[in-house]
Design brief:
The complex is a heterodimer of chains A (385) and B (305). With 385 residues, chain A is an all-alpha fold. Chain A folds into two domains: 56-198, Orthogonal Bundle (Cytochrome Bc1 Complex, Chain D, domain 2); 202-370, Cytochrome Bc1 Complex, Chain D, domain 2 (Orthogonal Bundle), CATH 1.10.760.10. Chain A is 31% helix and 2% strand. Chain A is built from 14 helices and four strands. Chain A has a two-stranded antiparallel sheet. The longest helix of chain A is centred in the N-terminal third of the chain and has 16 residues, at 9-24. Chain A starts with 8 loop residues before the first helix and ends in an 11-residue tail after the last helix. The relative contact order of chain A is 0.14. The model of chain A is unreliable at 1-28 (pLDDT under 50). With 305 residues, chain B is mainly β. Chain B has one domain (2-304). Helix content of chain B is 12%, strand content 36%. Chain B contains three helices and 20 strands. Chain B has a 16-stranded mixed β-sheet that branches. A two-stranded antiparallel sheet of chain B has the order 10-11. Chain B has a two-stranded antiparallel ribbon with strand order 14-15. The longest helix of chain B has 23 residues, at 2-24. Mean pLDDT of chain B is 86; it is low at 1-27. Classes of the chains: A mainly alpha (385), B mainly beta (305). At the A-B interface, helix 4, helix 7 and helix 11 of A face strand 14 of B.
Chain lengths: 385, 305
């Protein structure tokens, strides 16, 4: 058959397979897929739970689930309703609106580079894996987000009616007799979320040696950002501009949370009820108003800002930090955040000239990854045909 | 599936009994044998039967009216206690729906009326086997008391919901944001023409660690009430859980001061973290000190009928 074509790719492939088989197959007949992370050289590789290794098939199933409105009780919303690609997987709102019209208390976080985050959501110290975190929007009732509480069987029945899912689940979980389960659904969604990676901004290109990628203004802004006068980099640290990250070679540690003096109701450090941050989980007074640092990647497209979306623009965020904490003059949240007793010691205030302000903003804008915002591999697969 | 789950347990029970007998069985466990038991619960509001859709009066410290919105809770660590004070564990049978994983979900709401978060099905009787061999030592006489804990066992509470057996995988009793289960849910709609809900979700708080990463989760306030009811005969007694008694120490004609305004609606929800003025009197009826997390002796929700 192939004997007369000894140099053909097929026979070469067969030979390679044979060698691999003879070396590796005694232990395992199905060597696990080696997932190729879409990362530039030098970008850290995310950690992945042992029981949910990355595969292309799971990512693809997860993408279909992510954009599927069958994943809400009344079939009006999908994960993508509050995590929109062009806004770096946020929703442009101060707080999110769930499938039944209820509002969440906090601003939709960007899913970009969530794979690196040691804790998930704004303040929860308990949600350390995406597999577990997604149960909140899927099944939570206070507030209702996707509104699937008690509807697991309905959800799986809906998915079973879609021929494409039979294929996708089988490919993603080839060893399962009945792969269409809630367990596998959460695993596939987590794989897709871990695939939402950003390391292609102008700042990244500059760092890789393309010195034309940053304007002079953005470069000055980068130095201001990384300097001791503004102190930004202490919390927005490292390649993901976030202090609590983990990746291969850097094991996860406990989450880190900070009070930035955004509120100081009644002068005793209080934050608005229901939005007290880490305090909500620990009950410790000193944890009042402590929230997780979000990544600054793509920050220019994720307005409005802060855990409750209470600041509209990046320039106003700089005002808050320049003041060493926000002052609210009147209303139920009135108070001088600068004097919050639980405030991080890095929030000390600073003065910026107009040029310096423009420079810092130019730097923050240079963290936008245009490729990510339009990457067809991350887009809605249901609109293709 | 059920058979497969049960078999090892029965075998283990038999083996344990056998080994125990070699050591201590000359007195034949004081006449005890492994015995199938059914422990019946009944929900009431004072002396009236509890039913979704019904309205009740005379509730709270100020005699208000309300209609139920929910009444469900997990139990585990069930024990029958002899006259001598020996605890004989009850192994709950796995039924694949309401009992499994060492716990049972007792469900008294039928989804009607204001009970819109629930389902039509009920589960009001625990089924299991009481062990001949008591937890410690041995004794004689009959069973005269029942003890059980409300909640989900700690080693199951924080595991991945998608891998847990029923009833621990019920998303309506999942507390996903707190990475655990709602142990006890009881709610009502008060206020007549200006309705507002009052209710409690009891669960562990102050928890640290992630079970999904193989870490041990420990909680500074486990919040698993221990209920002990004397005068209980498992052949003839029924355990009454009084939904109305939950609100006994709370003024409920108008929304209590600790209630929150959310998007124009008043909600009086104690999700275990607080607010204290709401949680404290509700927790106290379960025999829990809300501020310290200690189990106390003063529960007032359960009685033997």
């Amino acid at each position: 058959m192939m004997r007369h074509a000894p140099a053909s790719p097929v026979s070469l492939a067969a030979l390679v397979s044979l060698v691999i088989v003879s070396v590796a197959c005694e232990a395992d007949t199905s060597a696990p897929e080696v997932y190729e992370w879409p990362l530039a050289a030098g970008t850290p590789v995310p950690l992945v739970p042992d029981d949910n290794p990355m595969t292309e098939a799971k990512v693809e199933l997860g993408r279909h689930l992510f954009y599927d409105t069958r994943l809400s009780g009344n079939q009006t919303q999908s994960c993508a309703s509050c995590h929109v690609q062009k806004y770096a997987f946020t929703d442009g709102r101060a707080v999110a609106e769930g499938s039944t019209g209820e509002h969440t208390r906090r601003n939709s976080m960007s899913l970009v580079n969530a794979a690196y985050s040691t804790t998930l959501t704004w303040a929860n110290p308990l949600l350390l894996t995406l597999e577990q975190q997604m149960l909140v929007p899927l099944f939570g009732a206070d507030p209702v987000e996707l509104g699937l509480r008690g509807m697991e069987d309905v959800l799986l029945a809906r998915l079973r009616e879609v021929p494409r899912y039979h294929d996708l689940f089988e490919r993603a979980f080839p060893d399962d007799d009945d792969p269409l389960t809630l367990h596998n659904l959460t695993r596939a969604l987590a794989c897709f979320e871990r695939r939402l990676l950003s390391d292609g901004s102008a700042f990244d290109r500059y760092s890789a040696g393309d010195y034309a990628a940053l304007s002079d203004s953005a470069l000055r802004g980068a130095f201001l950002f990384g300097g001791e006068r503004l102190e930004c980099f202490h919390c927005h640290a490292g390649f993901n501009f976030q202090d609590s990250v983990a990746y291969e070679g850097k094991p996860a540690r406990s989450g880190i949370f900070h009070n930035t003096g955004l509120y100081n109701i009644d002068g005793a450090g209080g934050y608005p009820p229901g939005n007290t941050g880490l305090h909500e989980f620990t009950g410790e007074a000193a944890d009042m108003g402590r929230f997780r640092v979000p990544t600054l990647r793509n920050i220019a497209v994720t307005a409005p800002y802060m855990h409750d979306g209470s600041i509209a623009t990046l320039s106003e965020v700089l005002d808050h930090y320049a003041a060493g904490g926000r002052t609210i003059a009147a209303g139920p949240h009135a108070g001088v955040g600068r004097d919050n007793p639980y405030k991080s010691s890095f929030i000390r205030g600073f003065e910026l000239t107009e040029q310096e302000r423009a420079d810092v903003l130019a730097f923050l804008e240079s963290l936008t990854d245009e490729r990510l915002l339009s990457d067809p591999d991350l887009a809605d697969p249901w609109v293709e045909g | 599936m059920i058979t497969m789950r049960n078999s090892p347990r029965i075998a283990a029970v038999a083996l344990t009994s056998f080994v125990a007998c070699l050591v201590a069985c000359e007195d034949d466990h004081g006449g005890f044998t492994d015995e199938a038991v059914e422990i019946a619960f009944e929900a009431r509001v004072g002396d009236l039967p509890f039913a979704c859709g019904e309205s009740y009066t005379g509730l709270g410290s100020d005699g208000a009216g309300a209609t139920p919105q929910d009444l469900r809770f997990y139990v585990h660590d069930v024990r029958l206690v002899t006259d001598d004070g020996e605890e004989h564990p009850v192994d709950l049978e796995d039924d694949g729906v309401y009992q499994g994983g060492g716990a049972a979900l007792l469900d008294f709401e039928d989804g009607s009326g204001a009970c819109t978060n629930g389902t039509a099905q009920l589960h009001t009787t625990l089924k299991g086997t009481v062990r001949a061999q008591p937890r410690h030592g041995g004794g004689e006489g009959g069973y005269s008391e029942i003890r059980f804990r409300i909640g989900v066992p700690e080693d199951q509470n924080h595991a991945d919901l998608t891998t847990l057996p029923a009833p621990l995988n019920d998303t309506t009793m999942s507390w996903s944001w707190n990475a655990g289960h709602i142990f006890f849910a009881a709610w009502g709609v008060f206020g007549g023409d200006s309705p507002f809900p009052i209710g409690v979700h009891v669960g562990s708080t102050g928890c640290m660690g992630d079970a999904m990463l193989g870490e041990v989760v420990s909680c500074s306030k486990p919040n698993r009430p221990e209920i002990a009811l004397a005068g209980f005969d498992h052949d003839t007694s029924t355990i009454v859980v009084d939904w109305g008694a939950l609100f006994a120490d709370l003024g409920v004609t108008a929304p209590p001061a600790a209630c929150e305004e959310v998007e124009g609606e008043t909600s009086c929800a104690c999700h275990s973290f607080g607010p204290g003025p709401l949680c404290s009197p509700l927790f106290a009826t379960l025999g829990l000190d809300w501020s310290s997390g200690e189990v106390t002796a003063g529960q007032s929700l359960f009685r033997v009928q």
